[in-house]
Amino acid sequence: EDQVTQSPEALRLQEGESSSLNCSYTVSGLRGLFWYRQDPGKGPEFLFTLYSAGEEKEKERLKATLTKKESFLHITAPKPEDSATYLCARRGFGNEKLTFGTGTRLTIIP
Amino acid sequence: GAGVSQSPSNKVTEKGKDVELRCDPISGHTALYWYRQSLGQGLEFLIYFQGNSAPDKSGLPSDRFSAERTGGSVSTLTIQRTQQEDSAVYLCASSPGTGLKAFFGQGTRLTVV
Question: What dotted CATH number matches A4-109?
Fold first, then answer.
C-alpha cells in the first residue's frame, strides 16, 4: 500500500533560520515524488517533482532532494511569507493517483 | 481562466440532501482528479479521469458518491443523501497527461448540518 509520512507535523522558525522538512515514502514502484505548498483556504500549489534518487530541484529559498527512501525540503533563510503547509505526495506505477502525506505546517516568525 | 475553477466555493446543505460540485479544468488538460481534505487530515483521493478511459473510482468512499466528466472537460462530483461526515473541502485538480504534475483548484468547502 502506498504510504507517505511527513515530519515534523509543525515547525516554527525565526526569520532567517534554515531547516529541513522530511517526507518518507513507500519505496517500491516510485514513479514521482511531488512537493506542494498550501496556504489556508486555498488549494495546493505545485512546487517540485523528483523522479530518481540523487535528484535536486531549487526554487528561490526552497530546495527539494530525493534519496532512495525519503525526500527533504530544505528552506534557506526563510521569510514570513514562506509560512504555509508543505505537502509531499508520491505516485506509483499502475495508477495515476497521488498519495499525500498530512503535511508540515511551517510558521516563520519575523 | 488560466487555472482550475471550482464552484461553488462554499456550500451548506442539510443532512440527507444531494449536492453537486463542479470543476472546470485547465483547457487542454486530459487528466482530472477529485480529492477530499477533512480538517486536520491529508488529501484523500476520490476519483481520476483520463481522456476517454474508464475512470479510476477506487477512492470513492461509498455508493453515495459519484462523478462524471462530460466531453472530456467539465466534471461534476455528486454526493447523495449527504451525511455530517461528508463535511470537508473537495478539491479538483487537472494535469496535461499521465505522469505529469497536477494543478489544483481552490476547492469547495462543504458543510452538512
Answer: 2.60.40.10
